[in-house]
Amino acid sequence: MQKTTLHWLTRVTNSICLVIMIFIPLGLALMWVNLDMFSPSIMAQLGLEAPSDGFPPMTRALAWLCTMLPGGLMMWGLSQLRLMLSEVSAGHYFSLPAVSHFRRFSWAMLLYACALPVQSTLLSLVLTMHNPPGQKMLVIRLGTTELNALLIAVLFVIIAHIFEEGRKLADENAGFL
How far apart are CA 123 and CA 72, in angstroms? Predict the structure, then answer.
């Protein structure tokens, strides 16, 4: 079988997805362990002030769990994308498994987009829980990043439905031959 550009691209993308899947939990853990280095940018994104004495380990662990909510959804989505890419690499472009995996990937991305504002809200609670009464904060954030992720995810869901309809038509046409 001749190695085509599509075959090569699917294999490379599959490998990149695997690296990202490994990096998500490890990278987020490293970020929260080394929070002092990242704290100003994280706190600025959430509109909060960092405590002068730093964050205790329990706060860092809870913050990691908050970021793993969308991170876990992204990992699940990438696992589905990898399975779809394996089907495409094998030449099964519109097979039931390929289309099903792409549909799951698109729904995972939609859930990921919905989880982003939940993550920032939970983080605001976790990162200010050590503050004295009256200084705890609840931040609800829905910005351009979250809206762009939502729009792209909805487009993926639409494309997944188009692929599914195309697969059904192909199966139906194959039955006539």
Answer: 16
